[in-house]
Amino acid sequence: MAQQQRNALALAAVLALASFSAAGQPAAAGAAARGSQAAHAAADAGYKAYARRDYPGAAELARRATQLAPDRRDYWLLLGESLLASGDAAGAEQALARAGQVAGDDAALGRARADLARTRAQAAGAAMYQALQAGDVKGAIAQGTDAVRWAPENAGYRLVLVHALLRDRRFADAERVSSETIALLPDSAAPLALRAYARQGLNRPAEAGADLDRALQQRGLDAATQRQLRLVAADLALAQGNGERALQVLAALPATDADADPRREFARQRIARPAGGAAYALNAPAIDCSKADASQACTLQAAAAPPSPGFANATAAYRALEQKDVQRALEQARLATAASPAQRDWQLMHMNAALAADAWAEAERAATAALDLRPDAQTLAQRSIIRRKVGNVAGANADAEAALQAGQLPAQTEAGLLADMGRTREARERLAAVPAGEVTPQNRLDLAYLSTRIGDSEAARQAFAQADAGGALPPGSLLDAGYAAMKSRHDEEAVGYFRRAIDAANGLQLRMEPQMLYDTRRTVADLTRKWGVLASITMRNGGGVQPGFGVTGGTGARRTTQAGVEGYYRPWGWRNGEFVELFARGFMTLDDRGGGSTGGDSFQGGVGVRWKPLTTQNLMLSLSRTFGPNVNDDWLAQIGYSYDVGNDLRVDRRDWTTMRFYGELGRYLENDINYGIASLMVGRSYLVGGDGRTVLFPHLFAGVEYDSSLATDKTASGVGPGVSLRRWFREDAYTAPRSYWDVTMQYRFKIGGDDRMKGLYINGLLNY
Fold this sequence. Notes:
The protein is α+β, with helices and mostly antiparallel strands. 49% of the residues lie in helices and 20% in strands. It comes from Ramlibacter alkalitolerans.
């Protein structure tokens, strides 16, 4: 635009001089004088239109001026500049040609012609770049030839033209243009490198190598330019089959250079198999002139290395891993690493595929191959985990120590290795030393799982919560977060995670098997239970001992019918299965064929507290005060233990094995009475009905009772077949059925003692 303003000022000066000259002469009469004045007026108006950037208007006025006064060069110059500014380069060229045919200011004409040449060159250059981006190589060559013709001094256009010629395999033309560019830029490496490729295409490898040697020896090259030249030189050497030369020029680049790595692999394979192997495709390097100063200095960029042997297999393996197709991933990884055993990334990919397929020994071999190529702390840590899995504890510990000595691992990885070696205290200290500023929501999730591994449930809960607050808790971690909260005794927080997991499963965001989903609902039911009621009615021979209620009276030989009810409350919730319950209970005999007390006379009550001290074992400790109209008030201490398999519902099958064991010991402290009871039922449960909530349980029973208050036959035992029918109810979307009623009928054969364990036994139970 500054050039256009200078041109406009020149035009103004010419017009002003013409005005002064016209003013100093006597007025001429006739048509010639009027034509000259009209031409002057049109040119003056054209100049003003040009000044306000109305270039089409200026061109129209200038054209009128040239028609009225065709012998005025300044008018032709005004027309040429106006047409050029409005985008009509061809018209501008014609106007300037006419200007050259009449006398006038040669300097102004030269400047106008230079403007035209620059504009035409820039347009051709832009079209050349666009054609290359569109893949139109021949169009790029045509436009580049025009750009060079209009701006022969512009080396940037020449370099891009050489690139296009190389892509079109016009090696002779490429050599010619690159040689011309070397003459323009004798100290530039780019034209030398391009000419090397042209000469290689002309089957003159010695001259090609000499050009690249000369390019590498240019002074003042920055590190980025040197790197690209070394990659280009390696490509040329590989195309010539010279693996040693390729490794030599790449030696200055770091071992971690992602572009040098495949070239080194090709070079090693070329050295190992000089007469065989795939040919190395030599592709022309790219030229970037976007940041060049006046388009005279361009950046050389090496072409992408052709795929290494096994590349297609490696790509397929990566894709299969993403698609969770584990077996295909492993098959393709084996092929990839067999084709290119020195590709370290592929060895690591092979390791990951083997891990996904649970092929631990193969994963260890792949990890070892990767470490042989280049040891690093992360892979040592990974192999330590693998070796521990396959039972190589000594090797695992050695790898862990080496990884820790390297000191390049994230804190949570180091803590995990320490935990694996049994150094839990150091693991916790390592986690505690992590600066808060280094912890992101994502690695908070890693910290949560590590804390779970070392048994720090509270730290895991906090880390899960922080990851959740930062948006880094995926649906697949909701259950883990819930169990961490449950184990650290934050029941409401755990329920929140479990409910979100159930929602995610129902919304197809989280894959959960039906039984797993049901078990999660069962956990929610356990966590949210604050109170409950148990009620039972039993008909059997004699009263004997009732589970939970203790000694209940009744004779040992005659039929009795007894009922009991208990209500309980958990003041502190689930407490990770170590809950405390306050309870009140009552028990009475409804009918006694042996003549014992019944109704209110037989009532026995009790209030007390019980505690489940172990999370994973169903052990209960209880202390209560018993009372009643015909019993001695006393303190009753009890210990009970139960173990069952398949006692809850199954939603993934119609039948399953079930076993229930219950044992209880009690002592009345003031009356010095001891009792004990144990029972075992083993059978198979069957779903009956259509809704999957009614269970039939045919089984075999074995039991024994002991009551020290009896004068004779303190112990009785029996076995026999039985059947139970249980109906579950009280459930919702988040909780499994919380209540059930159960009717059990058995026929017991006496093994020893009195008849308490003999005959028909019927029990009805409500657990609400």
